[in-house]
Design brief:
Largest sheet: 2 strands, antiparallel
Strand order of the largest sheet: 1-2
Strand content: under 5%
CATH superfamily of the largest domain: MFS general substrate transporter like domains
Number of helices: 18
Order of helices and strands: HHHHHHHHHHHHEEHHHHHH
Distance between the termini: 40 Å
Radius of gyration: 21 Å
Length: about 425
């Protein structure tokens, strides 16, 4: 490999890691935006979470087409298309702050949907790109872990940053979040220009002589994969729903009306604990099976959700958070939050290792159907939009803590999948 190619790969690696972070940055913007939408348009929790739903439902539309696009135009061009789409999606969300009140909500939802297309495409590209740019093997896996860590850091940062920008919850507007959109569009534009100019090593996309329909149907013949695909749908819904509903709960005027900065920091702590959990999971992954990890995480998650549901919202505990003073000054210190929030934040340690565990269990023994199975998995990421919206509806009808029965049911299914559903009863690949 000549010096020019090495330099190009180094630049491309940095760009891919940035995109890994942008997936989390843009995706995790949707849930705290529910606070803004709810207050600006005086809408329900269900409607407030529609932006998040629009972002994830795009996965259902683009999951399989993204794989087809990879086969036709390659990874670099797919990445450029994804980046351009992300810029347009965030740009439309930005425009929603400039149009009239009567159409702003619709424009924002359209932007969230377009941004979801981009996130789906980027998810399809960044993992194999980083693996190839690292030369495969341990080095490639190391780069993916670095990208995943940056992804978690951005997931931690986003709700905190949005909380700082919102200010007084009851007066929050889409225009308050413009700095986040400026950052997103700036990063997308920079990465697009740099990536289009550098020459990078293209991953080899495996091709199959069998038609896509046959591969998809072949994967669906494996019971443990079908149940695993459902588990991915449920898992992403749980992962997003826990902090999303918690943020709405903490800032709701009827629940005490906590300052958005504090609520955003509490929600950000959930994503930070996911980062810690992923690092711990990576360190013990070679010694503990995916089945055991998923079973333990699901069971502990069930206990934490149960504690959150049955604990009194009047019981307060101290958590270290970022706070905003009377003059708008920021300070870091301990503040009182409902004990329910503490239990919910701790669930981040449980959800952190679930994606990898479910994926490993679901594709075991699939052979040539793994690529098609991955496309189906990407489609079912839409659970991250559907289940939180359902949880928001339950919150409107029954209250915030009762809405976590949706999360409880999801974790119960994941425990079932770990103990029973993940067993491969079809041993041969035809």
């Amino acid at each position: 490999m000549n010096q020019q190619t090495k330099q190009g790969n180094t630049v491309a690696i940095i760009m891919m890691i940035l995109l890994f972070g942008m997936i989390s940055f843009v995706t995790n913007l949707a849930a705290p935006m529910g606070i803004v939408l709810k207050n600006q348009f005086q809408i329900s929790n269900f409607l407030g979470l529609l932006g998040n739903a629009a972002n994830f439902i795009a996965y259902a539309v683009m999951g399989i087409p993204s794989g087809i696009l990879l086969q036709k135009v390659g990874y670099k061009k797919t990445a450029l298309i994804a980046i351009a789409t992300g810029f347009v999606g965030v740009g439309i969300q930005y425009l929603s702050g400039h149009v009239g009140q009567e159409s702003a909500f619709t424009v924002y939802l359209l932007g969230a949907f377009v941004a979801g297309f981009s996130m789906c495409l980027l998810n399809t590209v960044v993992n194999p790109m980083l693996n190839t740019l690292g030369g495969g093997g341990n080095k490639g896996n190391q780069l993916i872990q670095v990208g995943g860590s940056f992804n978690s850091l951005m997931g931690t940062f986003t709700p905190m940053f949005v909380g700082v920008l919102i200010g007084e919850v009851t007066k929050s507007r889409i225009t308050d979040i413009f700095p986040v959109m400026y950052i997103a569009m700036g990063v997308f534009a920079t990465v697009f220009i740099v990536l289009s100019l550098v020459r990078i090593q293209e991953p080899n996309a495996e091709k199959s002589s069998e038609p896509l329909k046959g591969l998809l149907l072949g994967a669906l013949k494996f019971r443990h994969f079908v149940l695993g695909a459902i588990a991915i749908f449920v898992y992403v819904g749980v992962e997003v729903g826990v902090p999303g509903a918690m943020n709405l709960f903490l800032t709701d005027q009827q629940a005490g009306g906590m300052e958005a900065t504090v609520a955003g920091f509490v929600a950000g702590t959930y994503w930070f604990l996911m980062l810690i959990g992923r690092l711990v999971g990576a360190s013990i992954g070679a010694k503990v099976s995916s089945r055991v990890m998923l079973a333990v995480a699901s069971f502990v998650g069930l206990l934490l959700v149960g504690c959150a549901i049955f604990s009194s919202v009047d019981t307060q505990v101290y958590l270290p958070v970022l706070q905003k003073g009377p003059a708008g000054e920021l300070s870091f210190g301990a503040t009182q939050v409902p004990i329910n929030a503490m239990f919910l934040v701790l669930i981040g340690l449980c959800t952190s290792i679930m994606w990898g565990s479910i994926f490993n269990l679901a594709v075991e023994g699939l052979g040539k159907y793994v690529a098609a199975a991955s496309g189906i998995f990407m489609v079912l990421v839409c659970g991250g939009g559907i289940l939180p919206a359902l949880q928001g509806y339950v919150a409107d009808v029954a209250g915030y803590m009762p809405s976590y029965w949706v999360v409880f049911a999801g974790l119960l299914y994941l425990l079932y999948y770990a103990l029973i559903g993940s067993k491969n009863v079809k041993k041969t690949v035809q």
